[in-house]
Amino acid sequence: MTALKNDRFLRALLKQPVDVTPVWMMRQAGRYLPEYRASRAKAGDFMSLCMNPQFACEVTMQPLDRYPQLDAAILFSDILTIPDAMGQGLYFETGEGPRFKKVVSTLADIEALPIPDPQKDLGYVMDAVSTIRRELNGRVPLIGFSGSPWTLATYMVEGGSSKDFRKTKAMLYDNPQAMHLLLDKLAQSVTAYLNGQIMAGAQAVQIFDTWGGNLSAAAYQEFSLAYMRKIVSGLIREHDGRQVPVILFTKNGGLWLESIADAGADALGLDWTCDIGNARERVGHKVALQGNMDPTVLYAKPEAIRTEVGRILASYGKGSGHVFNLGHGITPEVDPEHAGAFLRAVHELSAQYHD
């Protein structure tokens, strides 16, 4: 494989020295970019964009072409590819988000679920990873990703997104045996899926635990973190002669940073409700930290964005181990010029924190 021209993202995840703080944005290939909207219109719909490796590559590259400051590319895909490959029938309603034709509601439903083979059942994702990696040609590292077992389970049991997770939580408390079986199958599936992405060319991987923060402290440990720990222990951690860093991101997980830091990953993603300086004091000796500007700051003027970037950098302080990111995905209504101001500010203001 081609040598990396810019590896500061990987170096920061491993707490190695860097010249400036690396930066990327969750959902950096997305609806805030007019070129993305044009590609989606050409593809016909969101799933056609995801399932065509050439389109997936095209939209992955768009933010990199627009913003030379980006230090990583992230695979363009969806977290719900695994449940779809398990036969749940993923589709998207306009304005409604993801939906499944089948829902999981009984132990028998869960027992019938297959564990997808990454090459046979999710080959279009593996093809997208290898296509993007070739197109990048060593420009920046490529991030692969998956949803966490708990997050995937919520969509499978609810049949789509949910405000209160009533069906999922009812299953968790009424029938923990069924929930544990579902989560175990998902953990096996995610491990194989991420390892497939690594073998296809992903140079770091992130597990998105979007809904783990909606659990009680005890339930989070048992039904979310335990399964992410299982995945981390089964991942390929070296490929192509380099370490493959692993990032865990639990939205609203700030109360449990110590436990998450003990799960075996190289880095923790932080949402914007955490103070990054405090997080560094708590766990920064164990893991790198990724984050954590409130995405809605990007609605403000560039001067205000720059001020907030400076505040977060100062809070983290000197030294490596910080990957700058938003505390969640960039939102569709953001002005692309504001995203550019954010990315430029990170590189310009962070040099003083690195020797």
Give an overview in words.
By secondary structure, the protein is of the alpha/beta class. The chain has a domain at 34-62 and 72-285: Alpha-Beta Barrel (TIM Barrel). It is built from 16 helices and eleven strands. The chain has helices spanning 8-13, 34-43, 46-51, 53-66, 81-88, 107-111, 118-121, 123-136, 149-158, 166-174, 176-200, 217-233, 257-261, 276-283, 302-316, 336-350, and strands spanning 73-74, 90-93, 97-100, 142-147, 204-209, 238-239, 242-243, 246-250, 267-269, 288-293, 322-326. Strands 1-4-5-8-9-10-11 form a seven-stranded parallel sheet. Strands 2-3 form a two-stranded antiparallel sheet. A two-stranded antiparallel ribbon has the order 6-7. Strand 2 and strand 3 (97-100) form a beta hairpin. Helix 9 (149-158) packs across helix 11.
